[in-house]
Design goal:
2 domains, about 5% strand, Arc Repressor Mutant, subunit A, 2 strands, mainly alpha
Length: about 130
């Protein structure tokens, strides 16, 4: 309802209408401010990202290669080991793997780095161990 139609249908005096309208505007502004606070909070709140078994497989392959070889894993070796694991595991489906996209997402999320080969970041190690990541 517009303010004009609201004024026309009201039987109160103009002063009372004006005060009522000011209170309505103040209330609407408070609601808008509250909504903005909630949106800002949700945008700034660290989100717990969800990873699946394929993401954890990549993290595990990177971790195990570093432990066994004392060097970072190259992309070709990571891809080869990833596909070998998927082919040998009946719980994993080749159609859902998308290794390139998964590596890119893990990199963007800060779980892995590429410094002359892939390595886990501190956050990546914590995620692999199942610790709460802030």
């Amino acid at each position: 309802m517009s303010i004009i139609s609201w004024l026309k249908t009201s039987n109160s005096s103009y002063a009372l209408l004006h005060l009522t309208y000011q209170e309505k505007v103040r209330s609407d502004m408070n609601i808008q401010h509250s909504i903005l606070e909630i949106i800002t909070y949700l945008q700034l709140k660290p989100q717990k990202l969800m990873y699946d078994k394929y993401d954890y497989l990549i993290l595990d392959l990177i971790h195990m290669y570093k432990q066994n070889n004392q060097q970072y894993i190259k992309l070709g070796i990571l891809e080869r080991d990833f596909w070998l694991k998927i082919e040998n595991d009946s719980d994993l489906n080749v159609g859902q793997a998308r290794i390139g996209e998964r590596i890119a997402n893990l990199y963007v999320d800060g779980l892995i780095q590429n410094k002359d080969g892939y390595m886990l970041t501190k956050r990546g190690r914590e995620e692999l161990l199942g610790l709460e990541v802030n």
